[in-house]
Specification:
Strand order of the largest sheet: 1-2-3-4
Helix content: 40-55%
Shape: globular
Radius of gyration: 17 Å
Largest sheet: 4 strands, mixed
Number of helices: 4
Order of helices and strands: HHEEEHEH
Distance between the termini: 55 Å
């Protein structure tokens, strides 16, 4: 196995530490969306593990209507509008981002199979329009539910 085929970070320990410090929850886009949803009177659970895989959690969950909201960063999740292929260690980053994208797709599929509506919000989206989509999904599910 060559060095490029391993999942080792492409950078020295200092860079590795910087990557480990990247926030995975309570990011600025997630907090802004949460504030807007709360302002609208919507109450939710945070970072709930809804699937058997204990490492995966959903950012915002409405348990009653079964709506799961995933707030994704454009870089880390390969945003269709903003994804840029890296030039340094391009193969390693491409592999990493494709793995993230595949994991996101599998998580969405598993959540839908479990009866959840999944709303994906990208970090570049306007908070009000993202909150509109989430609120619509929650209210529609509440009206349809038992």
């Amino acid at each position: 196995m060559t060095a490029r085929q391993t999942r080792e970070p492409p950078e020295p320990p200092r860079r590795r530490r910087a990557m480990q410090l990247q926030k995975t929850r309570d990011t600025a886009p997630e907090m802004a969306l949460r504030r807007e949803l709360h302002r609208r009177g919507l109450r939710f659970r945070l970072h709930k593990k809804l699937l058997p895989d204990r490492r995966r959690s959903v950012d915002i969950v409405f348990p009653g209507p079964r709506v799961a909201v995933d707030v994704r960063g454009c870089f880390w999740h390969g945003c269709p509008d903003h994804y840029r292929r890296g030039s340094v260690n391009a193969e390693w980053w491409e592999d990493k981002l494709q793995t993230n994208i595949a994991r996101d797709a599998l998580t969405e599929e598993q959540l839908r199979a479990a009866g959840y509506v999944v709303v994906v919000v990208w970090e570049h989206e306007q908070v009000v329009s993202a909150a509109d989509r989430v609120e619509r999904a929650v209210r529609e599910r509440r009206n349809i539910g038992p």
